[in-house]
Amino acid sequence: MRQKIIALWGNEYVQGGFLLTAASFIGNLLNYFFHFFAARVLGPSDYGDIVAFFSYIAIFSIPMTIFSMIIIQRISSRDKEPYSYASSVYYHYWRLMRRFLPFFLLMLLLIPFTPAITNLSAGVAYFIIPMILLSILTSFYQSLMQGLKLFAIYAVFSLSVTIFKLGSVGLPVLKLGGTGAMVAFLLVTNILALAAIIYFFIARKIIRPPATTEKIHPFSFRRFLMSHQFFLTAFAVLSITVFSNADIIVAKKYLPAADAGIFGSWSIFSKIILYVVGPVTQVFLVYFSDNRQKRLQDRILLLSLVFLVIVGVLSFIGYSSLGKMIVGILFGSKFISVVPYLGYAAVFGTFYAAINFFNTYFIAKKGRPALVLTIILPFYVIALLFVQKRLISIMSVDIFFAAVTAFFYLIAFLFHRRRFL
Q1: Residues 71, 74, 75, CA angle at the centre, nearest 5°?
Q2: Cα(279)–Cα(360) distance, rounded to whole angstroms?
Q3: b/e code 46-63 from CB counts within 10 Å (16+ = b)
Q4: Nearest-angstrom CA–CA distance, 352 and 355
Q5: What is the pLDDT of residues 190-214, one digit of tens each?
Q6: 321-357 burial, b if ≥16 CB within 10 A, otherwise e?
Q7: Which of 259, 278, 257, 279 is nearest to 267 (CA)?
Q8: Average pLDDT for residues 228-257, to the nearest whole number?
Q9: Whole-structure pTM value
Q10: CA angle 211, 213, 214 (to 5 degrees)
Q11: CA-CA distance, 122 to 120, in Å (whole number)?
Q12: What is the rounded CA–CA span in Å between residue 72 and residue 86?
């Protein structure tokens, strides 16, 4: 038994998976502390600005998110010379960035118009585009680290960024500014973290000279962008990101400022479930992409879903019976009006986490069921836009479409296991 445990720990996926899962769990916990402290310090109206700010960044960073996930897949699936292949990707990436430089400069010209477009305060809205541009760089280096299985370095980077994010709440506490100061602090600290990662890549000579990479691993972006893998991943990632953030943006755009903040807190409560069981999804993408691990992949997903259901039931019981106390401890008395909706948060959160599990699984497997949410998403967006602009109405749309999507994903998974797809 001891030898089996030692051999199991020697597996790169076990070691890396443990580090990545532990770091992700700690990072998610710190991220929750950020939301709890920010809500207490800022109140519903300003907190609604912060939640919507991150939602806008997530949606407009979709292209780079898609690109990053594909890089992780392609590099991690390489059994031979992954560093040479990663170097080839690196050089082509920077060629692509130079071509898009005029477009990035045009994006900066839109900064003065962001407050009117987003309904956010000017001090927050002005930082959306700079953060999006910065994420283009950080996402790329993060994908290289994960694809090359540099899990320890990736964990340090991710935790550092999250700690800085948590530290930004100290600015309004110390009377050094409000929401604008917080997002400015986030921008500066993210730039510093990116500089540290670039230094690490240079110091460790992770990127090989171009003369050795082009001949070994030619990498055609044009051919890649026309591939089945790209379209599958692009639509799947687009769908899950929009589904995760569209409701928050609609709430901020159309609801009173205080109600938008209350909805933001409801969204956080619903996604606690994913933060509890979700760290494994980062390992899923690498693990399910490896052709050597086929036998246990379906079993691991099923066990994860069983664990998710247990967590969902416990969350519903806890929210329903102890809701007032939980809200008072975590968000404060200003958010007490969210208590009647916490049971709905547990239901939505369970379906939402299941959708993320299935979506990650099918993206990694390059399976057509990854497009289930893509097919349903237009109906979801239309429902959000035309439903009555009340808290309970938006929540009901969320729950209904999450349940329908999770059901169809489950059916697709059962068929996929029997090789009908």
Answers
A1: 80
A2: 12
A3: bbbbbbbbbbbbbbbbbe
A4: 5
A5: 999 889 888 888 887 777 666 555 4
A6: eebeebbeebbbebbebbbebbbbbbbbbbbbbbbbb
A7: 259
A8: 86
A9: 0.79
A10: 75
A11: 6
A12: 10
